[in-house]
Amino acid sequence: MKNFNYSIPTKIFFGRDQINVLGDQIKKYGSKVLLVYGGGSIKKSGLYEKVVDIFNKNNIIFWELPGVEPNPRITSVRKGAEICKQNHIDIILAVGGGSSIDCSKVIGAAACYDGEPWDLVIDPRKIKKVLPIASILTLAATGSEMDAGAVITNLETNQKLGTGHKDMAPKFSILDPTNTFTVPKSQTAAGTADIMSHIFEVYFNNTKGVYLQDRMAEALLKTCINYGSKAMENPEDYEARSNLMWASSLAINGLLTYGKETKWSVHPMEHELSAFYDITHGVGLAILTPHWMKYVLNDHTLNKFVEYGVNVWNIDENLDKYEIAHKSIEETKKFFISLGIPSTLREVGIEEESLEKMANQSTVRGSIGNFLPLDSKDILNIYKAAL
Ligand code: NZQ
Ligand code: ZN
Prior knowledge:
Layout: E1 11-14, H1 22-27, E2 32-37, H2 41-45, H3 47-57, E3 61-65, H4 74-87, E4 91-96, H5 98-110, H6 118-122, E5 133-137, E6 149-154, E7 159-164, E8 172-175, H7 185-203, H8 211-233, H9 238-252, H10 266-277, H11 281-296, H12 302-313, H13 321-338, H14 355-362, H15 376-386
Helix pairs in contact: 4-5, 7-8, 7-9, 7-11, 8-9, 8-12, 10-11, 10-14, 11-13, 11-15, 12-13, 14-15
The structure holds 5,6-dihydroxy-NADP and zinc ion.
Zinc ion (ZN) is lined by residues 142, 194, 197-198, 267, 281.
């Protein structure tokens, strides 16, 4: 296990009716709020009204940035930063999924920066200060509610890039699983795949002596497998929704990575798909993951797949090691298909013509992954296999 400093600063209010803390929590940071949300799901569910009511009762003045896109765009960040600058906003409250939260984080940084907001995405070192961020999560997926990263899309340049700063971590996040009852099946499935992918990115890793982190990762994977299906069958299953919601936060808040040297593989490959084709992040991950697994399976990585197959999928440990590994990959693919997620790139409208361009762009920041480092040729092979 490597040395690490433990710090997860986001305060979590988890459970039914935790929205009741909103007024008091916001007032710790001021009385002028920018409310950021997506395409209207929070209006349909009634959550918007509840938030506004709490603001009014607590004399909190607020401005709004509606319409944040899935795969949030730099144009929305620019709009939000302008509102913050003009009105001296004290805190940004995102109500929604990862897109609204990510957009808020970069708005918070851009509001404290004199130049062009895209600079802060290309080069996170330029982020010096961030307005306080808070969130009310409505979709279990990205973990943005408890991490310090954000992913923003620039459609003019076909780029989707991650950025981050420690102060981008929300000051507090309200996680009421009932707010996810209205999530459509397709997003429940994509969210589950996303949570699992965050775990895979750090579980398939070469750091030695991380028994505890690996067992925690397996517990989280089993939670997703068990409750992902249940939430699909019954969207109002509180037990399923609460387990998925907490898994979403724990998968990526640092808990699984402390003590490991990590460098992600499938996410950088997927970000190109959503940058070029604006597809759902979790869907892209679910399509690519089994092909990535097959590609990186070799004599050096075999034991990790055996661990995965035996501990997560309960495959007989007495079988031949390669048989266990292949079965574990097959189970992974079957699970994503059982959630109704497409399994090929063509099904989501991606054709061969852009594969090379995307493969080249995914490595502009260098090779990806450290379980088995991949260059643009490897990535092209994986894209082709997933076609
Ligand atoms: O926009 P609205 O109307 O709210 O509808 C959204 C959107 O259409 C809908 N939705 C959300 N909650 C709902 C709901 N519909 C009904 N009831 C609810 N309770 O779901 C759709 C997708 O929402 P979005 O916020 O885009 O989804 P998600 O949470 O999956 O976020 C995806 C974005 O996060 C980035 C992804 O790349 C993508 O841009 N990621 C952020 C990460 C981070 N900050 O750490 C890590 C991830 O790996 C990921 O890259
Ligand atoms: Zn993700």
